[in-house]
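Before surveying the methods themselves, let us examine one representative protein, written as a sequence plus integers encoding its fold.
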Amino acid sequence: MHRIGLIISDNFQMLALSTLTVFEFANIVAGESFYQTAVYSEHGGTVRSSSGIGVDSAPLSAEVQMDTWLLAGVLMPTEQPATPGLIAFLQNSAHQARRVAGICTGAFVLAQAGLLDGRRATTHWRRLEEMQSHYPLVKVEGGPLYIQDGHIWTSAGVSSGFDLKLAL
């Protein structure tokens, strides 16, 4: 069983939630529950998407271990940086996970945590220059739908998050 955790925060992009269906359909094709998915947020409870729809989430804690952590992006990543609690969680947990992926502007959270320093990464094309200016240690690239650098993955947008999940 591979455990997949999607981390959301206030104003997350709702389409990121739908990318979990890749794992749902993989289970159907495999005829078994090969992937188990769950949605998390820093404190748990209902988290509002950028469209205002609330989604239930479990709280993050040091005891929560996942094979893969996914981070949903927000519309204005530099205006809504990740909280110190989420950054600390990622810095402590990312090295224990087999894979960590930023969906669209979720890459900003990975960069904020220092997990992209010296790595290649991508994000939404409208945010490429913004990401490079805020995180000069990241090798920001436009063009690819997703980039894998070691165990860290990033996607060029929310819809390319589907391509990233298929590659996972």
About this structure: The CA atoms of residues 117 and 138 lie 5 Å apart. The chain has a mean pLDDT of 95.
